[in-house]
Amino acid sequence: MKIEKEFTADKHFLYTSEGEKVPTDDMSVFEISDQNAADVASVVAGITEGKMYTVSDRPVVLEISGKTVEPEEGMYNEAFLAYLREILKSFDEYGLHAIISPVAGADLANPAAAELFTAAAKHIARRIKDCRSVIGFTIPDTAAENEDFVSAYIQELQKKHSQYVFFAREKTDGFYNDVVLY
Asked: Of 124, 103, 134, which is closest to residue 5 (Cα–Cα)?
């Protein structure tokens, strides 16, 4: 199932496919793990006793630690990823949007660590590929200045998920115009 691109990036800003600028400043950031996944779902999606409320008019950032996704090298936490998909499918139902922010637990200047991190991000993307609520992925803060990593990371994720937009906290020299700053 291919999802149509609903958002684009230009000159470090996020736009809907209709050209409307989407605010990305002051987005709510939630750390999500096995231990707090249910709380995040109820707060962000607002599914409590059948009543709907939203955190804000902006997308939310869901930070996911590498250890939550991949507790052991090459062994993914499929139960967590299935639950993450359920949360994002509830976002779909209510028109909410999220940005997935994998948090690196290793130095991404190390090529082996960068490769494992990118593989884990690809696995997350594969598990949530049918969630229209996902706008894209963040570039880890610790690797934002590593142009080789950023280029490889974006290329790998966009191979099968061309609808994704990428986000970074800070602009660096030579940074891509199509990466949204938040």
From this structure: 134
